[in-house]
Amino acid sequence: MLSLSGVSVAYDGVDAVVDVSLDVPAGEVLAVLGASGCGKSTLLRAVAGLEAPRSGTVVADGEDVTRVPTHRRGFALMFQDGQLFGHLTVARNVAYPLRLRRRPAAETAARVAELLELVGLVGYGDRLPGTLSGGEQQRVALARALAVRPRLLLLDEPLSALDAGLRERLAGDLRRILVEAGTTAVLVTHDHEEAFAVADRMALMRAGRVVQHGPVADVWGAPVDAEAALFLGYARVLDGARAAAVLAAAGRPGASAVALRRSALRVEPAGALAGTVVSAAATPDQVRLVADVEGLGRLDAVGGPGLAAARVPAPGAAVRLDVDPARLAPLRRARG
Ligand code: ADP
Ligand code: MG
After folding, report:
1. Where is the ABC transporter domain (predicted)?
2. CB of 328 within 8 A of CB of 275?
3. CATH architecture of 231-331
C-alpha cells in the first residue's frame, strides 16, 4: 500500500533521513523504531507531505504522491499530544473532520458512535477533553484520526506522553483498534515494547538510516548487530570466546557474537556451564539470579522448573546452568 524508495530528507543541507526504502502492505502496521534524534519524525513528515524529500519517492496505492500536497494524500496524522480542541466535546472532536467534509448530520452521528465504541469510549461523547485522562484523550484523538477512513494512518509516538503501565495497556488496545479498523499504519516510537505490541513489521532506524527491517518476529529473532539487539531489549551481548562458549552450550555454534535475554540461562542440575550464585530473588513465577559463570563472568539467569521459589539459592552456592537456544540471538557481527 505504501512504498518508499530512496527517500532522503535534509534540513539546511544536513541529512536527517538517508536513502530509506520501505514497503507497508495494505492493512499492516509498520513500527519505525529508533533512538531520539535518529530521524523517525522527519521520515513520517516526509510520508505525510510535511517535508519535501531531497530525493526518493513516496508511492501510495500505486500512485506517486511525492509532490502531492498533504491534504490531498488521504492520510491522517496523530501525535504524542493528540491536540484535541479543548472547547469542543469528545463527540464534536471526533466529528470535526466529517463536518469539514460536510457529511450529512445523521451519517456523522452514526460514524461518531461507531468510533467511540471502537476506542472504548461509549458514553463519553458529551465530556470535554479537559475532564479526561491522558489515555482517554489519546483514544479520542485516535477516533478523530480514523473518522474519515484514511488510507494511511501516521502515528508519531502516540503513547509516549503516558505513564508506563497505561502505555502498555493502551499499546494492546491500539493494536486491536487498528486491526479492527483494517487501517494501514506507520507508528513511530522509541519504545521497543510498544513496537512489538502494536506492529506487524518493524524498521529499525539509526542516524537517519534504516539498518534493519522485516516482520517483527524476524527482526527480534535476528538483530543485525549488538546495538540493534540492545535497543530491541536483549539484556546482554557477548563476543569472542565468551560468545563461542554460550553458543556451543546452546548447540548453535558459528556466530561471532550473541545477544542474550535475561532468561537465556537457566538453572539445570545437568547444565553445561558451572557458576556461583552472586544474588538471587524469587518473583511470583520464577527465581531470578545473578551468577558468576566460569569463563563468562556475571550473567543473569532464571530458576528452571526444579527450582521452586521456596528454594532460592544462597549467595556463594554452586549452580549449573543451561542455555536456552530460544532465548538468545546469534549475531552476524558485534558492531554496526
Ligand atoms: P526523531 O523523531 O527520531 O527523534 P527527528 O526526525 O525529529 O528525530 O530529527 C532528526 C534530526 O533532524 C535531528 O538531528 C534533529 O535535530 C533534526 N531536525 C528535526 N527537525 C528539524 C528542523 N525543523 N530543522 C532542522 N533540523 C531538524
Ligand atoms: Mg520524533
Report:
1. 2-232
2. no
3. Beta Barrel (2.40)
Cell digits for 31?
A: 513500527
Residue written as grid cell 544462597: 314
Pairing of strands 318-323, 265-267: antiparallel
The residue whose CB lies within 8 Å of the most ligand 1 atoms, and thus the one to mutate among 7, 8, 9, 11, is 11
Alpha-carbon dihedral angle through residues 163, 166, 172, 173, given to the nearest 10 degrees: -120
Kindly give the distance from the C-alpha atom of residue 37 to the centroid of ligand 2, in angstroms, as a whole number. 7
Whole-structure pTM value: 0.91
Domain-wise residue ranges, the chain? 2-224, 231-331
Q: How many residues does the chain have?
A: 336
Measured by CA distance, the residue closest to atom 20 of ligand 1 is 42
Q: Which of 178, 171, 218 is nearest to 195 (CA)?
A: 171
Buried b (16+ CB within 10 A) or exposed e, 33-62: bbeeebbbbbbbbbbbbebebbebebebee
- Region 125-147 average pLDDT: 94
Whole-number Å distance, alpha carbon 39 to ligand 1 midpoint, is 6
pLDDT in tens, 154-166: 999 999 888 888 8
